[in-house]
């Protein structure tokens, strides 16, 4: 673990625990009088939404609801929400749902606070100032978006998804209530958990940069650091201890709580350290196959770890010892290999495919995917082993 430098970026408040969603009205009332709640059709049909609206109105808040959030967050959906509620002028924007709902809340708040187009802000540190306060209430355990400075969207003018990264996008308050994940189906629980594990492992094994005083002021994702290491390792241990049980026994609140806490820890880890190859390569894989982000990342993670083995052996060895698949007497090289095999084994047990063919990738797709993955520069630069198109092609061939 790295001890000589640390960065944590986090919400002003993080409320965690069963039933904490009932604090939402009081939290929102402390921030303004009008609230725009962003969610999706599935949640809009649940009694949960009526419960939350009643809580907000009990604090005399004026509430508007946008329930048309789409998976993978297309640009036109963001623009439609902004157009519909610009005149409403919300003081607070709430995201309720999975990662797309939380990212929608962040980006709607951005466009309500600053002039568009949204493409002006693609990349790092492009947001010019604070946005209207966002309250993030996740209903899945995977993206960590409730605590991160990044939002990802699909722009039809781009070949793959793009990100906006700025500390201004971190929600003001995150309310993490594991009761909201009890109805999450096994398949979604598995791929969300795989995404959280990838966040934690890639943050823990990210490039360690020289700790210049301006590092965190010029890079949203600074690479491996002591504070992110702490969050990442805690997330990894929780996922190995509880994810399989949360997938198979979805009504177990203890397991759900542990996995949600792991997802939040992983978000705190990669919110400063960043992610790497598995996430960079998933962007073109997802664009080609139209598969869920967490699924693609889960398929790719063991293969990217294989590629990074020499460069990240010490970090992977620390992971192996933390999850008790290696001992202090094992060499780092041996322990690192056991960590990779532990990831493969866990993913196999929860139904994550072991290869890209299983999600629709074909050999003819690989050259274009390798080139496109290089466009995710902030992730490519964060990988512990150097990446170029040939290296990414070798990972894709192994994963195929």
UniProtKB/TrEMBL annotation:
Q: What range(s) does the Fe-containing alcohol dehydrogenase-like C-terminal domain occupy?
A: 189-399
| Segments forming domain Alcohol dehydrogenase iron-type/glycerol dehydrogenase GldA | 11-178
What this protein catalyses is: a primary alcohol + NAD(+) = an aldehyde + NADH + H(+)
Cofactor(s) recorded for this entry are:
Fe cation
Q: Its Gene Ontology molecular function terms?
A: alcohol dehydrogenase (NAD+) activity; metal ion binding
Q: Does the keyword Oxidoreductase apply?
A: yes
Q: Which domain of life is it from?
A: Bacteria
Keywords linked to the UniProt accession: NAD, Oxidoreductase
For this protein, the record's PROSITE patterns field holds:
ADH_IRON_1 (PS00913)
The record ties this protein, via Pfam families, to: ADH_Fe_C, Fe-ADH
Q: Which family does it belong to?
A: Belongs to the iron-containing alcohol dehydrogenase family.
Stated name of the protein: Alcohol dehydrogenase
Q: Which organism is it from?
A: Tianweitania populi
